[in-house]
Amino acid sequence: MQRSFIVLLCLGFVRATLQNYTVDDTSPDIQYGGEKFQCDANSCPPGVIDGQFNNSATLTTGSITFSFTGTAIYASLDLVGTCSITVDGDEIPSLTVTVAQAIAGVRGNISRSDLANGLHTLVIDPTTNSTVIGFDHLVYTASLPNKKSHVGAIVGGVVGGVVLTIGALFLALFARRRKLIIRRNQRKNAVLRGISSTRHDYKAGEEDATELPT
Ligand SMILES: *[C@@H]1O[C@H](CO)[C@@H](O)[C@H](O)[C@H]1NC(C)=O
Ligand SMILES: *[C@@H]1O[C@H](CO)[C@@H](O)[C@H](O)[C@H]1NC(C)=O
Ligand SMILES: *[C@@H]1O[C@H](CO)[C@@H](O)[C@H](O)[C@H]1NC(C)=O
Ligand SMILES: *[C@@H]1O[C@H](CO)[C@@H](O)[C@H](O)[C@H]1NC(C)=O
């Protein structure tokens, strides 16, 4: 009883952990809306090679769409031109990088955090014909339930208080049921003893009194 209560207490404090995942430009989860050219360390223009993830980058003049389940999204683009950026259709500041800036190493940074945990879609959309995007990878943050116990995984998203309330209710019902079973058994014993020996009726009553739970 006490042990199960401690387990329930622990479940009440299960926290979702945040984890970053890096998605490569070659991932099938990335949708390209236009012409694209995949390059590697040898074929990428200088600059796009810097900090390359998984030895590839994709150059494109079309849109980039990515759906993810989580709470945040980050990307740093090599860019010449202007892109509109939306998450779930909401515009976040568009990016503009001139040729001179690109040569100086300026990148277009995308950062959107504090999203409600769930499915979101990022769209990077060039707004001029001359825009070219060099896309290497992006990072999204997923909210994972604690994997230490199966029950923990199920209730991971549940607010601790709710779990504790359910736990307390369960314990109360369990205790009540036990008490009822003990009482019923005692009554049954008393009746049986009464049947087997009518002379010791008063004694059975005495025993019952000492065994009664508080
Ligand atoms: C995920 O990556 C972003 C950008 O690098 C960083 O700001 C954030 O703290 C990271 N989150 C986690 C949970 O590692
Ligand atoms: C790295 O790129 C290869 C194809 O070039 C792909 O099969 C693999 O899944 C990529 N790895 C990651 C971690 O994205
Ligand atoms: C973009 O992020 C990089 C680090 O990834 C940083 O060095 C750079 O200053 C940022 N650029 C802008 C315009 O904020
Ligand atoms: C983009 O180029 C096409 C022709 O290739 C032209 O018809 C269109 O107006 C241009 N769009 C913009 C926004 O400049």
UniProtKB/TrEMBL annotation:
<protein>
    <submittedName>
        <fullName>Uncharacterized protein</fullName>
    </submittedName>
</protein>
<feature type="transmembrane region" description="Helical">
    <location>
        <begin position="151"/>
        <end position="175"/>
    </location>
</feature>
<keyword id="KW-0812">Transmembrane</keyword>
<feature type="signal peptide">
    <location>
        <begin position="1"/>
        <end position="16"/>
    </location>
</feature>
<keyword id="KW-0472">Membrane</keyword>
<keyword id="KW-0732">Signal</keyword>
<keyword id="KW-1133">Transmembrane helix</keyword>
